Description:
Layout: E1 2-3, E2 6-7, E3 11-13, E4 21-24, E5 35-38, H1 41-49, H2 56-74, H3 80-92, H4 99-112, H5 118-159, E6 170-175, H6 191-198, E7 203-208, H7 215-226, E8 231-233, H8 239-244, E9 250-253, E10 257-259, E11 264-267, H9 270-279, E12 284-287, E13 293-294, H10 311-314, E14 315-320, E15 323-328, E16 341-344, E17 351-354, E18 357-359, H11 363-369
Helix pairs in contact: 1-2, 2-3, 2-4, 2-5, 4-5, 5-6
This protein binds 5-S-methyl-1-O-phosphono-5-thio-D-ribulose.
Amino acid sequence: xxxxxxxxxxxxxxxxxxxxxxxxxxxxxxxxxxxxxxxxxxxxxxxxxxxxxxxxxxxxxxxxxxxxxxxxxxxxxxxxxxxxxxxxxxxxxxxxxxxxxxxxxxxxxxxxxxxxxxxxxxxxxxxxxxxxxxxxxxxxxxxxxxxxxxxxxxxxxxxxxxxxxxxxxxxxxxxxxxxxxxxxxxxxxxxxxxxxxxxxxxxxxxxxxxxxxxxxxxxxxxxxxxxxxxxxxxxxxxxxxxxxxxxxxxxxxxxxxxxxxxxxxxxxxxxxxxxxxxxxxxxxxxxxxxxxxxxxxxxxxxxxxxxxxxxxxxxxxxxxxxxxxxxxxxxxxxxxxxxxxxxxxxxxxxxxxxxxxxxxxxxxxxxxxxxxxxxx
Length: 376
Ligand code: MRU
């Protein structure tokens, strides 16, 4: 995606300094565009845990590059395998919900399972991390193409047999950030939106997740704005009201972990959007690469839900007189609870948009698209 006029991925290896991985430090967006260099496993762990990078696919790819960095570090250690395995444990302990993190680490480990020579391990981990990053990009492009069809159909239906020149607007609600910032490029839920916009479909996006972290307000609003997509920010509580008033044609969200039977964990508040969409007969689609699917579990209640620091609820940060400041909202002594994700049951999901096509959110339909992935 472009920032200003320059194309950026969200993560890349420094072309002049192999082994140094660069990321956009998303904590400062939209007010500051800061690129951070990740040079150590500890740096990678901090970046994931403290959400310099975030979004399930990007968390996975950062973890993959983390294993590459770990192999470089291991060169200087006596027991290099031990160092890599310790790094794996550290990286795995950063964020529990996004399946992509664990998927990427497994992919990295199997790419070196037969290797003993550390130079070969370094080469293999570098190549594998790059391969996974490229796969993420192509998966997101495919998700974009499949999701585009949904938007196009809504557009055509809205146009109906009306006046030739009438170009209706497709109103899409998205929650949190499932755009290019959450992936390596293009995004999951936002990829179809970018394609539809490029192809001339008039659309407009309602943007939320205005708490606990303001990811919609900060990240989605910024990236849509950078790409010229009309959007309006709403508070999380407004979604249901807009749906009742006929102001939403489609809800499109991402996922951090989807079970083999189609229950969807996504940013906290997604479930409420799904309920409101269901009640108002509005299609609710979830866009996700298969790296997000947990083939081991079927029930959403078994998805580990991350609980983050309550201070993310108690405090809000933003720009004041050109400085980013952090302010306290409730009484100093009031405690807060901060679940980062919730689970939307499959019955509320109209469909899953994956890199292999669109399927119903149920075991049979998912397995039909991914027969090679299901547990035998
Ligand atoms: O906590 P985050 O920002 O890492 O949350 C993840 C998300 O941005 C969303 O839940 C997103 O919809 C899924 S990732 C494409």
